[in-house]
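Can you give me the bound-state structure? Components:
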Amino acid sequence: MVKIMSNTTKLILCVALMMVSSMLSIAQTQVKTITGVVKDETGATVPGASIVIVGTTTGTTTDFDGKFSIRVSSGDVLEFSFIGYVKQRVKVGPMTELNVEMKSDTQKLDEVQVVAFGKQKKSSMIGSITTINTKELKVSSSNLTTGFAGKLAGVIAYQTSGDPSQQSVDFFVRGVSTMGASSSPLILIDGIESSSTDLARLQPDDIATFSILKDATATALYGARGANGIMQITTKEGVEGKVKVSVRVEGVTSAPTDMVDVTDPITYMKMHNQATATRNPLAIQLYSEDKIENTARGINKYAFPAVDWQDMLFKKRSSNTRSTFSLSGGSKFARYYVGGTYNVDNGMLKADGENNFNNNVKLNTYQLRSNVNVNVTKTTEVILRLGVTVDDYTGPIYGAGEMFSRVMKASPVLFPAYYPKEGENARIQHILFGNYDGTGNYPNPYADLQRGYREYNNSKIVSTFEVKQNLDMITKGLSARGLFSTDRYTHEGAKRQYNPFYYHIGDSYNPATNTYELTNLNPPTLANGATDYLNYDQETTEANATTYFEGAINYDRTFNEKHNISGLLVGYMRNYKTSVIPNNDVKLAVLATLPYRNTGVSGRLAYGYDSRYFIEGNFGYNGSERFAANHRWGFFPSVGLGWLVSNENFMKNFQDKISKLKLKATYGLVGNDQLSSDAKDRYFYLSNVNVDDAAYGYTFGERLGEHLNGVSIGRYANDQITWELSKKLNLGFELELFRTLELQVDLFRDRRSNVLIDRSDLPSTAGLLTGVKANSGAMESKGVDIVVDYNKSFRNGFWITSHNTFTYATNKVTAFDEPNYEAIGTPWRSRIGRSWNQKWGYVAERLFIDDLDIANSSDQTAFGKVMAGDIKYKDINKDGKINSDDLVPIGYPTVPEVNFGFGVSVGYKGFDLSCFFQGTGRRALWIDPKGCSPFVNSTLGTSNVIQGASNLVLKSIADNYWSEENRNSYALWPRLSTTSISNNEQSSTWYMRDGSFLRLKSFELGYSIPHKLLRKANLTNLRLYYTGTNLFVFSKFKMWDPELGGNAFAYPLQRTHCIGLQVSL
Amino acid sequence: MKKIKNIVAVTCVALFMVACNSFLDVIPDDVATIQSVFGDKNSARKYLYTCYSFLPAHRQVGDNPGFALGGEFAVNQTDWTSTPSGLPRTLLETGNNSNGPYIDYWTRTNNMFAAIRVCNDFLSNVDNIPDLPAVDRERWKAEVTFLKAYYHWWLFQMYGPIPIMDTNPSFTDKTDLKVYRNTKDECANYIVGLIDKAINSNALPDNISGLELTDLGRITKPIAMAIKARVMVTLASDFFNGNQDYSKMVDNNNRQLFSPEYSQQRWVDAAKACKEAIDFCEEQGLSLYKFTAPSGTITNKQIDLTLQPAMILRGESPDNTEIIWAQTQSNPGIYGDIQHRYGFPQYLYTGNPSNPTQKNVGYEICGSLGVSLNFAEVFYTKNGVPMDEDKTYFPKTEWFKPDAAYNIRTDHQYVIKAGYQTNNFNLYREPRYYGSIAFKGSTLFGHGRLTKDDQWFFYPTNTGRVNSTGMLARKWVNYRAIPYNGQIDFYSWPIIRLADLYLLYSEALNESPEGNGEPAADVYKYINLVRERSGLESVQDSWSKYSLYPEKYKTKAGMRDIIRQERRIELAFEGQAWFDLRRWKMMEQLFGASTMRGYNLKISDNVEYISTPTVIHTTNYQSRNNLWPIKDSELNKNLNLVQNSGWE
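Here's the bound-state model for the whole set.
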């Protein structure tokens, strides 16, 4: 914190210097003081209104009586502004007293909305678009997407891990509406397609607008890419006027919301022995009575260790700093916005002095954004945008999440983290890491942390050049635009590590002398033995490049003040290349590194009559390189109707009460060409034959010398494959009451067809070497999204705003390749009519009581041997055996169907306070039985096997499990085992919990120094604030944070406390 | 104005380009296709190898039902998700299931149907390969024809009646895929017919030794004939011939899939096929192999006989002339050393040097597959008769008594560590017992120590994960391997060898005539050849001299028992056990409601250890396990398939 403060001091000094220079540059002549009162239409005074001299940062605010006084020169123009009122400019001239009447902001309806390929007047908008005040998106993490849940109407979002280095937020526009490969929205930053990582890294301070395009009219222009919705972000541009500087500095401490409790080492050992014996009385128990007793007595912490790895490796909290600055301004000819960011994220790991390198995670992020607009002629504008993001990372070999997982899977009692260098080992240079047997077959998280480090550098550069030309000289209302953009991404990284020296004590402990001897388990002489030097292991360098071109013609003109006609025709081409070869599979290189291309023409034609009736048609006609020539191009039309009821004459009388009422309906087609995330699946119309596949090779010969690799088929050709199609219907209304309360409701339905799915009904007798896919899936999703905004300012300077959202999105499968379950007599297994995110499982009745109970129950041998204390399942079809025929849909879908958020901000004088609650409903949570089962190695069978891993014992399980002494048929956990028991790992209602929750997502308290004081320093704004996120959560599920889902040992979500300072001048 | 014109022009050009479809043509023309594979004889050769690549890994406990259900092993681990070593227990104790069957060759990745599809593809394209000499073409065709038969056979052995996939179905036409199971006899005729086609094409090479060694492992005429003999004997055996158990199994066309009829002629035909195979193999110079230690290795006859079972498996030419077909696919990377891991003491094993990352895995499962006492009892006494039939041997009640004379005994010094006290059970057994099984105190000649007086010996360790019965299948690791130095002796796994064929012939010939008369001379001749090679007297002599039932060999029924036991001993740990016991319908009798036994490793006192064998687990083999269950999901996809009896 001290460091942060000293940084802050430096910044303030800097700022002060800048101010001085700017003051000097203002040449002031004919200075006088002008005073006055600001009133509203009713004649009441307006306190707190701000008054600024246009073109400068000099200003003041009205006092309680609406009075003000400011020093000006006669040529100045004063701008009066206040929330809910129209800005007003008054030229000073010779007067010394100035009374201003401010008008309520009825023109608000004519704000401009960013839409696909352009902007539209908000009043004439028919499409369903959510916009959000970018202030709402501010988060105290380096991941913008963590703030989505509950704030964006129409977006379902949840976070499954708190690992800072991973993009762990899943978000879907209007829920999951396809079972295809991708249900993620298209992300456009300044019109350029971007990745979810780019979005996560975006600085809220740089964002000018953030909108989500949801329905057919809003997305049809993106044709084959828009079906999953679009997130459209524009970054800030400079505005004409004096230079504005804004600086924000934050110090953030971050700590887990909830650490799971695990048992003490003694209970751990006893339960382990119990788990061994209860399954197999013949098996030899790992921990002798002696060992348990000696550990309890703590006679020698190396011979009888009890290690708290979590405490040893993790700090209680980490501290991060974020600083951003921006500079903007401009003249008639050029405007600029420059933003910079420097963030430092520190991990929670404890760095240790034993090594020469610091192993804690340190992620430095630098960002620079520069947007420059130049008016080349009166009608031509050139825009240059440049965005640079650079990440420098150092950290342990394994990432934070992986380290956390290793800590939760390491035995606390088999060996200490390391042995002291004493006696005959005193002169050994390397660390004497502990291990148990083999050549170091047990995870030692301390060694994993100390064994080396990983570094990487990412850089991403996006540059855009845009020309806008007003073509009024050809015909009024015509303009054209061209945009060229290119971006580059590179990643390079390397690991430096040694192979740790593992030692063990074996049976060498001598209780008489309290001494032991150490044996090296993996001497360097072994093939894969220990090393005391670092090796260098380079990561695959990634380089991606995109070029994008877009040309557009716009037309917008109102005839006879009543007929508004607007049109747009746009064409674009996109080319993306990557050096990334999936799994480093050289044979895929040919296909994976070919450019990915999209191209298309889109258009919009809109007609508005008298700002009351609106009709709009859109189309996208576009193609994608990944389909056969006959399926390459698609046409996606959409149409929308709107009626602005509040502009009708008969509504004029109610205008004070119902200030806006708009009804709208849209319908259209949109596509999705993201058929597969797998590079090898790019060209379905071609077969994929690997003519050099070692897995299909064979060896002959006495000496096994005659070997040839074989031929395998990765895909059978199918030229019928095409994109999925979405038919979107949206019905909505917008209502504004009393000019303070705004309500937006949209009902939607999305019918997906042609979804590419595996043909799961092909029998094995067909002998196919690989699955076959077809466009045979269909799905329907529907729901509603609602936004309620409330803004009100009171005369006494008190203001309140509230932002509330509710999203409900549900889906059901309408066509799916599956066996005819009706004919088989198990109709409940059919996916048709069920949510795509529905889970199937067994109905767990209770735990088996004894062998007799097992013998009298339905046969469960499909899951291996069953004993008393294992889960008993219900025989749904009553055929005497439990098998997949007894799987029934259980619980709510895994993806929440409801996201909601409500928040309120209030302010009075310099103080502001806001809090935001976020909730998730209609979501079920399944405790992951394998991941939570005590002593089980849950990494077996995964792609990331950790030898010798063994889950720690959750306190909640230790307190309530079935044992031979405590034969509770309804215990939380079934009979223990040290290995996986398939019967108890089946997906079932036993582990099902209500996953809904409500959390206090953020709380913010701020204080702005009064303008009077600031004026002396020539500052416009100085605000100090505290923000806390994830402060607490309400849920029926108490074992751990419910948002994480089923795995107790996932990296916990982070609770952050942030203190920040924001300065503008 | 000019500027504006330019901008308009640029926009127009852009739109024009957009319309240009060629922007989207980003595919190179020369992407590999199936046709291109057969466009050149060298790529086509790869496809030939691909046809072979589907051969089930006969050496893998988890891939070969002959191992997994054979009852030779007992383990105390029930978990086999990480290693296959728990599978024998799971299958015998709990049984298989139809929800997610173990060893599921019907639906697993690269299942036998996929193998058949690849063979069919090969056969329908092989004639299009340019410049392939006719000799090669015919040979390749005959090889793949045999493989296609073998893949059908593998399925047939496990599932009984199967759908014959003589040609490849299209996968776009749904009805084409809803196949029916063919009847047992249709399958039998089809498989034998295909093998005959391969044999009679005369395109298969006659012998192995005359060929370049690089071709070893490819199908030859002796292989085809020997497998045909095995197929014919299996089809004649009790399970497939006259079995009433499946008479009610009919499909939805009311066809009876598994005929209960008995045919004596099957035995006659089988005997004929065996004899033809034997004669042809012998013509090609094959003979039983007898091991004697090479000069420089200090052994004696007792040690040589002990090393022999492993050296027969080792099968290295030119000395070993017995192996007819060995699976050369012994990928050293993936469990290629599996027999070393299971058959060798963990404390002498450092892992697979050719794949260090597998080291941990190897270590984990090392030695964990314990040989059951049930199976150890099968081996004869030194007199070549069963333990409980030998009138000169310890009575059954004294088998597990400690050896009272261990201090002074010298007649076992080369098979049991000097000074170690074992029980009577391990004394005076036949050489194959000492050569196949290591028990506590067994000496392990070789492995770097090549003198008879300086030998490693085996003791089970009790660290819990390792070994469960105190006995190992030492037959799997021959004396030349030095696993503790990383010298693993990867050897090709024998699928069929001459001794197997001899015993099949004895068996078929014994069964050929009706009635229970005295067997033909050849019945004795061929079994005696096998016994003699292992240092035993003839059946006639052994039984007359030592057996409690000296007349046993004189009847067909008595000889049947003798041949069966001989076969179990000779082919111990070779992946045959379940296939044999099942065709004899003996599985229920041996493992119905029984126990698997071994020593209790928790006992540290030696005398107590050797004298109190314990139950490792119970067994519960039900008849339905005689045919593998078809996975439920497969039946759901194709309603024309019916499940095997007992698994519905």
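A couple of observations. The first strand of chain A starts at residue 31 and ends at 40. The radius of gyration of chain A is 33 Å.
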